[in-house]
Amino acid sequence: METEIISLSPACMDGEALGRAAKIIREGGLVAFPTETVYGLGGDALNADSARKIYAAKGRPSDNPLIVHIASLSDLNLYAREVPGQALELARTYWPGPMTLVLKKTGRIPDETSGGLDTVALRMPANPIALELIRLSQTAIAAPSANLSGRPSPTCVEHVREDLFGRIDMILDGGGTAIGLESTIIDFSEGEGVLLRPGAIDREMLRRVIGELKTDPALHAPPDEKTRPRAPGMKYRHYAPKAEITIVNGEREAVIAKINFLAERDMLRGKRIGILATKETAALYPFGIVSVIGSREDEKSIAHNLFSVLRGFDEKGVDLIYSESFAQKGLGEAVMNRLLKAASYRSIEAR
Ligand code: TXA
Ligand code: MG
Description:
The longest helix has 17 residues, at 252-268. The strands form two sheets. Strands 1, 2, 3, 4, 5, 6, 7, 8, 9, 10, 11 and 12 form a twelve-stranded mixed β-sheet that branches. The protein has a five-stranded parallel β-sheet with strand order 15-14-16-13-17, with helices on both faces. Helix 1 crosses helix 5 and helix 9 (299-315) packs parallel to helix 10. The protein is α/β, with parallel strands linked by helices and 351 residues long. It contains ten helices and 17 strands. The protein binds threonylcarbamoyladenylate and magnesium ion (MG).
């Protein structure tokens, strides 16, 4: 399949190109587009064939439901059968924005889109290109992250091209995504909110609007029979680079010493080593391929660069990655959630 790539900037949108992208969606085709979190792979959420094509293009298991993107708050009632008061308050406060609400679905959402569940995940993205595409399509757009299943989510058009070129109809290039991690997901389908995936709308921001929030027990542990994640996607090994990652916890100096010890040892055994470091520490690692994820003074930079640093290690062909760890507060909870999943929860203490 020919994949057309079109560059757009939010400041100057090419109406003709967006119109063509919307036509592709309406006719059952697939268009990758930028959101403020990561790029999405969009298809008509109300068309079962489009949903099937999305699973096929990504190589994704079809029991893993898709997020349905809308452009106006009034569309909530078209697709959700029951909207608890707290869910509505969150939507009013943080939409458009990086937050997804799981609600009981209406009959408009086909089973293919919802992965056979009786619920639907809804989100109104904050990117103007995404919003305009949804409006022009005159439907809701089902869009998982625009990566091949198992690879890190795409935060720029090069990542989308790497994974999906030749597999979809069009890619809209809107530059790098602002946040770099996927949306926060809260499940309201059983009335009370439960956090299924941490994101840029962090716990404190949620607490300010609806008070303390429950957490899916599967969120901080490797999946097994006992902790069956409520977001089916959380059970798959996600965001994973090809190399094995080990996260090193502890005091700064101890972490640096431990990583240097392990990196030197493994290099002598003939391994290619990647080190995920910060601006503050990068110069202190003499061995291996050192990638700077961002600055500890600026947690947004760390979220923003995580997935591209992981992809970078793949390109450089490293066998093992040693990573510093980050405090689990604010956006740090989402960063550590993705990093731990990428590492298959492999972490050690430095002392
Ligand atoms: O930021 C985002 O959310 C990005 C952009 C493109 O909007 N999308 C995204 O989609 O991350 P995806 O498919 O990569 O992740 C969606 C997650 C999966 O873990 C899936 O299992 C979960 O949402 N999910 C979707 N529908 C659900 C439902 N009805 N109940 C529980 N979890 C659901
Ligand atoms: Mg994804």
